[in-house]
Records
---
Amino acid sequence: MIQKINAAITAVGGYVPETKLTNADLEKMVETTDEWIRTRTGVEERRILKEPGKGSSDLAVPAVLQICEKRGISPEEIDCLICATVTPDMVFPATANIICDKIGAKNAWGFDLGAACSGFLYALTTGAALIESRRYKKVIVVGVDKMSAIIDYTDRQTCIIFGDGAGAVLLEPNHDGFGVLDSILKSDGSGRQYLHMKAGGSVKPASAETVANKEHFVYQEGQAVFKFAVKGMADVSAELLERNNLTGDDIAWLVPHQANKRIIDATADRMGLSHDKVMVNIQKFGNTTAATLPLCLWEWRQQLNKGDNIVLAAFGGGFTWGATLLKWAY
Ligand code: UT7
């Protein structure tokens, strides 16, 4: 009989840039208040990659190198690197290729995956399938975004939420039932009207006019996205528990996308989960898009125990959303 293989996370890395952008800083830039931002979103400060000429790959490289150090492996042992991002270094080549070049992962192939705030979940499921296929033994999944590159710092609806950061995990085969156990991933492209970037793609290539019209920044209809996010993230997390015969009591940690503290609370309530089991670092890092989930795992890595049932959940542009169940492997 062929033995079942799961893809287990065997190491976690993370990185945020030094520069902090606080609510007090934003009060000087747009018509807003610290009080409004904290009570409506939960964010107190975010990190910004300021150095000119640096991009998402520069955030991801330290996170991936931490993993190699922790596992005692050389970058040349990595088989594949998947980079979830909506802020690639360039339109092409893929940021995954640039990361691999910068760390000397000479034997890896890789690609970028664009699913906005659900990017890490999509990439984790994809990476897990590569491990389960038995063709690859070491797959790195990165979630990274330099949101400051596409944020209009005169738009108070968006500039208060987003920040920059990177997180990564190593996936390896596990024969003892630990690792990624189940995933429900969803998408609905009709939601694109509420959250997108208008220019810079093939429909509307960059021009002097698109730049003048500020069409290379995030466009978000916050209220509409909020409504879909609360329902989407809560529904899918509840469905994942139900189909695995689990209740909130069986879950050690919820790792939710950090878009808005109110969305996180609604998801935890729907799962019947007490709030002390929910990872929340939105106050420090804001919404780092594809990086929120791995940044949580990185921050909480010392508190995770072998056998913990962990649910990761996200909602974002596309619309894309989903939830993943995993059993912590170490
Ligand atoms: O991660 C990807 C997915 N994205 C999300 O999940 C984001 C989901 N959306 C949200 O988190 C929230 O919709 C926002 C944080 C973006 C906005 O919060 P909201 O509670 O939905 O605010 P709103 O847009 O309904 O605006 C309420 C009021 C308005 O004033 P009036 O019309 O009631 O007088 C806004 O003009 O708050 C005003 N407002 C602000 N006031 C101070 C909007 N932004 C600000 C601001 N500071 N930064």
Note: The pocket of oxa(dethia)-CoA is lined by residues 32, 36, 40-41, 117, 156-157, 160-161, 222-223, 225-226, 229, 259-260, 263, 287, 316 (CB under 6 Å).
---
Amino acid sequence: MVDILKEVLKDLPKDADIEDACFEGANIVLYTKSKDFFLRENGIIREIVDKIKKRIELRPSPSICLKEEDAEAAIRKIIPEEAGELNVIFDPQRSIVIIESEKPGLAIGKSGEVLREVKRNTLWVPIVRRIPTIKSNIIEKIRTVLYENNDYRKKFLDKVGHRIYDGWIREKKNEWVRISILGAGRQVGRSCFLLQTPESRVLLDAGIDVAAQEEKDAFPQLDAPEFDINELDAIIVSHSHTDHIGFVPYLYKMGYRGPCYMTQPARDIGSLLCLDYISVAAKDNKKSIYSSTDIKEMVKHSITLNYEEVTDITPDIRVTFYNAGHVLGSCLVHLHVGNGLHNLLYTGDLNYENSNLLAAAITRFPRLETLMIEATHAARDDNPPTRRDSELELIKVIKETMARKGKVLMPVLGVGRSQEIMVILEKSIRSGELEEIPIYVQGIVWDITAIHTTYPDFFYAPIRKLIFHKDQNPFLHPCFKRIASQKEMKQVLDSGPCVILATSGMMTAGSSVEYWKELCEDEKNSLVFTCYQGPGSLGRRILNGEKEIQLPAEDKTYKMNMQLHALAGFSGHSSRQQLLNFMKRLDPKPKKVIVMHGEPSNCLELASTIHKLFRVETLSPKNLDVVRIN
Ligand code: ZN
């Protein structure tokens, strides 16, 4: 038996009657055959947790759990009816019962009293999950994948624990930490970084650059000699955008079977975007590099973490996620390497500003020596209007377009920007600032919004308050109408003035392009960009002022007559000034700053400015560069 388990067991009293001790990732799980000890362990577990600084969970042995039918009947009796619809799902291997509820707060009870009652009466460990307020197929599918693979998950999580606690597998000689840039070095897209220590190999993000002209430029450079998929210990995903998660299923296709750490919203939205990547490829008559089976493997091997939950992932790396303010469930990844040797913060994409939907990124960390920061909007001349100004501008554009009986097409990123805009439009309609017009939400944007309704705890406090205390969920407003089929899309085009939210945001593919083809020649209509337009994308061509546009593989020339507006204030990324404010507020200050995820001039510029203002070493490495950080 592993030393740490021996240590835990030696401190337990004889009557604890422990039948089994195993791992679930970095957590230690004990199964007791004693009903009495399970219900009244009197703080002994707490004491051991304080001593060894690892999470320990006490569960009943499956042999003492109440029969499933009886337990379900008891649960339905104990949980008040006001909690709404209930699904009760058993995970008998782990003595866990999952209770899906429309109102989790009521199923949990004041300081958990309802759940304690469930525990006492059934001898199962109850876990409560929210049923999305808007039905979400993807969440149902993901939960099914997890429930169906309970047995596999139990073994997998124990294996992950052994990797963390069994001791070093490589020889401990020198101490060093290095990062290989496998993607997003002086570019936006295909984020991928390999973090290596003498013991560990960890991948930070694995994304696809969907705007890349050639396939070889679209994927991370796994041909770097130091990358070996068989040696990989863990993947960490900062958030659900395709340029950060899109390549992960491919790694599972190539045989990787280790853990993928992310937040729950990142897992759910990310899976949906990977599925979308497959269907967009199919529509373009391209072969996707992976199938839905590989996405399923990613889900099966996911380990979700909450913000500020500290977790060991290898013998010498401990990870903590912090809110990044960028999209739902996005995180700044803090890595504590070797016992106090080095602390690295990888920002992924960050927004250092409160938006309607999310709070600004966190700036305080226990320790910090190296910062890896994004530079998407770091250009010196990138001085976007404020969010409020852009909000007013958007409402003005919509009113003017309505007045001339036109339609407003908004190509949006399915995640984040669309929900932010939905919140703004709902607010304006509710306050009477905007008349109630139909707002058509194209398929995938709707599906992602449904996922948002599953995780209101990740929202910014004011909107959380609206939902929980005033029962006013902006996403449920009747002005929003879902468009899923070609037939419905045609009806929208034939109908009167309206707003259309459609992906992709850069018009590289998808329904935003389909709508644009139908709407572009009529000057009554408006096209409103709210996000970054990558080089080579149709969005960038339009933004550059092209008036007669030919699309690849089409003979027709499209005349761009509709009114064009680009509103920069809604960005999910920090502006240059916000990046510098983030630097200024960072506590503690890093000694080294690596700038990535920006066009070359932006990366160089931000690196040079940070060096001058904060007197720290800065670099902006290219793809395939390796940086030693300790
Ligand atoms: Zn992003």
Note: The domain at 141-162+171-380+573-628 is CATH 3.60.15.10 (Metallo-beta-lactamase; Chain A).
